[in-house]
């Protein structure tokens, strides 16, 4: 037994550290996602001049609705788990997993900080730093289509199937744009590892501007924002669900199976916000903050403790993530839904050519600057 | 590296199992899902062999794009909506014949594989090497292929578009 541990020491140590990091990071994400379901209702209430949920209470303390996610979860668990008579039982059960698992797996690739020293070990604040991280993001997010499609098909309900077909067409289309917008970033940073990309964004441009992705690739950022909203199937691209009138793929789902689809959507908001922060807004970078402390362009210095620097970096990542989550909620309650042909035209006739032009322009600029 | 070896056997076994189950599955959509399982296990196999690019391309292209199209197309077929799929004796004979042909080919190839030893100039197929080969040595063929695909897309659009009276 000891020999086995000795022989596989590296891989076991890696697995242990990864497990610990995953537990902390994923725990934080899950807790935050539960609060996101509340935030969604509160934001919608604010924008529609209502109060929103504020009644769920523990021993009389409601904290203006803070316990609503707990109440929702209990309600979901206690509801009847309905299985339509003609449904394909196995695929019907499998579909929520396909919606949830790829999204959860993607959090392993997100760098949420630089590193911290723990008992002399340098612990990277990222679960898995894959050299092809960005490709894995695209690969796994592509698998989320199966959740939508199987959910719609296995219900054996024509409305659900139509929703699923809309979903498959929409997600396959916007997946292409999503991938192409990231090519420009890969060309500039010369790497597909997310941690490398964040580290590359730590420098300064013209001596004062943080070298964030959005400065280099503003068009790619806008395209990515639109395509990722469409990929997440949220308003204005919620033709897949269309909860109020056209009915979506999870029509036949109830109880925790439905909750899995809904929760997956909210986790996707968090994931996309993290990706936008990582790729375009410097990830965990704080402007002018380096490993040893602040170093302002004017020459002023402010040396800081290693743990304080790490905490500020993780905090900066959290703030950026929360900002884009909030942005996503506001967009949802501001814009009306597209018609299906408008959505398809937007993808194939506007976003896709623009994404290709962006790659061409990036390549030309790199060639001109002699960095190719 | 016992763990890596174990991962290789587990993913290999899963791929073989999923493929076998797919062959004996009557429901076309379920068969497609089993094929997806086989494709994903193969991607896992590549990962265990630390061929990350292959694994990613396997998932993006086969599992993400091609299988999605397969499944969408399959649900449009009448067979997917039948509660009990039809049994055709002709299809059975044809299937057996194709299976026999493929099996003999596979046996031939696997017999040849044993003789092949990794050649000395073999290097790890990294992303850079692949890119060098694709856009350097095989650049002409690569561009030619994209032209063929473009022609196929134009043809598909032409076939799909409604014939309007002139």
In short:
Chain A is mainly alpha-helical and 372 residues long. In chain A, 64% of the residues lie in helices and 5% in strands. In chain A, the strands form three sheets. A three-stranded antiparallel beta sheet of chain A has the order 5-6-7, with no helix packed on it. A two-stranded antiparallel sheet of chain A has the order 1-2. Chain A has a two-stranded antiparallel sheet with strand order 3-4.
Your description of this structure?
The complex is a heterodimer of chains A (372) and B (166). Chain A is built from twelve helices and seven strands. With 372 residues, chain A is mainly alpha-helical. Chain A has a three-stranded antiparallel β-sheet with strand order 5-6-7, with no helix packed on it. In chain A, strands 1-2 form a two-stranded antiparallel ribbon. The longest helix of chain A is centred in the first third of the chain and has 39 residues, at 9-47. Chain A is globular, with a radius of gyration of 22 Å. The mean pLDDT of chain A is 87. Chain B is mainly α and 166 residues long. Chains A and B meet through helix 4, helix 5 and helix 6 of A and helix 1, helix 2 and helix 3 of B.
Could you outline the blueprint of secondary structure elements for this entry?
The complex is a heterodimer of chains A (372) and B (166).
Chain A: H1 2-7, H2 9-47, H3 68-78, H4 89-106, E1 115-118, E2 121-124, H5 133-154, H6 158-189, H7 194-200, E3 204-205, E4 209-210, H8 213-216, H9 218-231, H10 255-280, E5 289-290, E6 293-295, E7 301-303, H11 306-334, H12 340-368
Antiparallel strand pairs in A: 1-2, 3-4, 5-6, 6-7
Helix pairs in contact in A: 2-10, 2-11, 3-10, 4-5, 4-10, 5-6, 6-9, 6-12, 9-10, 9-12, 10-11
Chain B: H1 2-23, H2 28-48, H3 52-75, H4 89-115, H5 127-137, H6 139-160
Helix pairs in contact in B: 1-2, 2-3
